[in-house]
Amino acid sequence: MKIQAALLNDYGKPFDLETVELDTTLKNTEVLVKIKATGLCHTDLTVRDKQSPFSVPAILGHEGAGIVEKVGANVTKVKPGDHVVLAPASCGKCNSCKSGHPSYCEKFFPLNFGNGHREDGSCPYHNHEGKGVAGFFFGQSSFATYSLAEENNVVKVPTDIPIEMLGPLGCGIQTGAGTVLNVIKPDAGQSIVISGVGPVGLSGIMAAKARGCTTIIAVDVHENRLQLAKELGATHTINSLNESVTEAITTRIHPGGVHYALDTTGRNNVISDLVASLNFTGKAVLVGVSPTANLEIPNSAFTMGRSVQFAVEGDSIPDILIPQLISLYKAGMFPFDKLIKFYDLKDINKAVEDSEKGITLKAILKMPE
Ligand SMILES: [Zn+2]
Ligand SMILES: [Zn+2]
């Protein structure tokens, strides 16, 4: 079948809207999804910038949401007509997957990045010249009107909420909220600082509020983001251009330090400040990726039982977390719609520009009807 896709034809280039031929002969465990909308995430741009490995020409996109069109012979989890959110790919068979940690699947890199072909080497996507196009980015390649996914990475969602807004629950929002709900697990009445309040950090703030944290400190350098953080649950904000984060926390906001920190920036100086703002036995969890840098924190920061951990995709089981976030949204406790701005797929380059300038927090690309 012919599909419309935003192709990355070469690294560093804008996306090109093109018609792509998709062979819809499904393998036994595959699911063909008619994409309704897809979020744009920083990781898509790291491929464009050649910081993450993926072949070109490629269909990127990994926050897809849509309606099941057709399923492979062995698929039982969903049927045509079901609304689904696409999550990162995982094998479902390795020790990490079996112990409930699919974000740490032993096949995470080949399944989510890799060469854009199936594991058996076949390539169902071809451009107008008949050249193979890399698909299966995060098991979905959702910058397109149709997506080939696996039963394992489709999450069935209720139909009484607009499907167009749900895609980011599969990556960016899951990362921020899942890190708080699954990894940090603060108790009611505890304190947390969250640095970098883009879509991931703001999702963490909403989750911290939903968990009952009573001191939620947002750190950023953009006043508009700090303002939104306040609306979404931050009890305090720090503009780190104007004051020292550690001093503000340990002397003014929460003397003695906070229980937890979540960093979404990946910046060494920010992470050091957060660790120094923890109370004894406090824990910092990092989700930001800076593949080229080393992390340096003074040994003395750890002497009183403090710890630092890295977490991927909120260490979530998407089949559990995504419906949980939808329930919280419906209850008015997770208003992630406040982060979203919709664009048409054809305006993807404008969406990228607005996201990189910080004008748009979470761009969602709607597919043409
Ligand atoms: Zn696995
Ligand atoms: Zn992502």
Task: Please explain how this structure is put together.
The protein has 369 residues and is α/β, with parallel strands linked by helices. The protein has 2 domains: 2-170 and 335-366, Quinone Oxidoreductase, Chain A, domain 1 (Alpha-Beta Complex), CATH 3.90.180.10; 176-312, NAD(P)-binding Rossmann-like Domain (Rossmann fold), CATH 3.40.50.720. 25% of the residues lie in helices and 25% in strands. The chain is built from 10 helices and 17 strands. The strands form 3 sheets. Strands 3, 5, 6, 8, 9, 16 and 17 form a 7-stranded mixed sheet that branches. Strands 12-11-10-13-14-15 form a 6-stranded parallel sheet, with helices on both faces. A 4-stranded antiparallel sheet has the order 4-1-2-7, with no helix packed on it. The mean pLDDT is 96. Bound molecules: zinc ion (2 copies). One zinc ion is lined by residues 90-91, 93-94, 96-97, 105-107.
Helix and strand element order: EEEHEEEHHEEEHEHEHEHEHEEHEHE
Estimated share of beta-strand residues = 15-25%
Q: Poorly predicted ranges (pLDDT <50, ≥5 residues)?
A: none
> Portion of residues in helices?
25-40%
Give the class-level CATH name of the largest domain.
Answer: Alpha Beta
Name given to the CATH architecture of the largest domain: Alpha-Beta Complex
